Amino acid sequence: MIKDKLKRPLHDLRISVTDRCNFRCQYCMPAEIFGPDFKFLTQDEILSFEEIERLSRIFSKLGVKKLRITGGEPLMRKNVASLITMLNQIEGIEDIGLTTNGVLLQKQSQPLYDAGLRRLNISLDALDNQIFQKMNGRGVKSEIVLKGIETALKTGFSIKVNMVVQKGVNDSQIIPMAKHFKEMGVTLRFIEFMDVGNTNGWNWDQVVTKKEIYDSLSKHFKLEPVDSNYYGEVAKRYKYENSETEIGFITSVSESFCSTCTRARISANGNFYTCLFSSKGHDLKTIVRSNHDDEQILKIISDIWEKRDDRYSDERVIGSLSSTKKIEMSYIGG
Ligand code: SAM
Ligand code: SF4
Ligand code: SF4
């Protein structure tokens, strides 16, 4: 097992399969920037499924046990279920998850399940349509995502719902969302609004911290902490009293968790990033398209990981950030 400079193993790989999306969430792909003239990656610029499979196989030899398929919107990549089938056959991979905005789930839920996928994270930031339609930048109603969630539950998926909370935008939805998903018995996770990329106009004033969210939930529900399941678990988990239903918090801003961060990322165009907030990736696409054999690629990846000392969120907390230009979320996938 390889470790980085801060003794963190490589355990998870997040793979962005497309930079395209059918939403324009203001906090991720603001419509003013990702407009009709925006140049998305071409077919040739993105990794093929065979290239993703090969890289995942190599990463698994270095200790990766969990894969997450993300984007952009991963369900916009044609036939993504066939990628799941390929990844499922890799020895050493114990768990595959996919993160989606849920819009295409009504159609794709069954093929994904048939391909062997069992876990979905579905993003939904509000139940209220005025709020949700504005946030997703495409006027899509929350019912569409709720139907996707319903379909996926019926198909047999294990589901977590992710809600990014932004002050003055959707914080009024914290309690309605909690009530709704408590009733459904689905885990809801609150994500602190992060300063990913360079285009989402982030500032501290728009962050609703875990403490603030917890305090407002406490006025309505009794919550009990749940111990973390494994080293490097990102969410701080709680369950409702007298219930098995959980809620979680992703506290990247207020309580960073870099010291146990075991996640690597590959962007849609095949760059390898050792941190969500990296300014520079390592070009694996050129390497897989050259005549390097698997052993040589493994050595390149392991050398990069062993040099890794990223701890961006820790540095944000202590106010010592130096990096300025960062990779956009839609490339790297969150
Ligand atoms: N399109 C899919 C979706 O929205 O679920 C997958 C990709 S999206 C980039 C992955 C996750 O990142 C989503 O849950 C999204 O809400 C979250 N995200 C995007 N921008 C964010 C930001 N600035 N702060 C916190 N979370 C963010
Ligand atoms: Fe698309 Fe997901 Fe980004 Fe929203 S958060 S714009 S759904 S990639
Ligand atoms: Fe990991 Fe970077 Fe996030 Fe810290 S800031 S938890 S190192 S991805």
UniProtKB/TrEMBL annotation:
Q: What class of enzyme is it?
A: lyase
Q: Which residues form the signal peptide?
A: none
Catalyzed reaction equations: GTP + AH2 + S-adenosyl-L-methionine = (8S)-3',8-cyclo-7,8-dihydroguanosine 5'-triphosphate + 5'-deoxyadenosine + L-methionine + A + H(+)
- The UniProt record lists the EC number as 4.1.99.22
Q: Where does [4Fe-4S] cluster 2 bind?
A: C258, C261, C275
Cofactor descriptive note: Binds 2 [4Fe-4S] clusters. Binds 1 [4Fe-4S] cluster coordinated with 3 cysteines and an exchangeable S-adenosyl-L-methionine and 1 [4Fe-4S] cluster coordinated with 3 cysteines and the GTP-derived substrate.
The residues that the entry says bind [4Fe-4S] cluster 1 are C21, C25, C28
Binding positions for GTP per the UniProt entry:
R14, R68, T99, K160, R263, A264, R265
Main role? Catalyzes the cyclization of GTP to (8S)-3',8-cyclo-7,8-dihydroguanosine 5'-triphosphate.
Family recorded in the similarity comment: Belongs to the radical SAM superfamily. MoaA family.
Protein's recorded name: GTP 3',8-cyclase
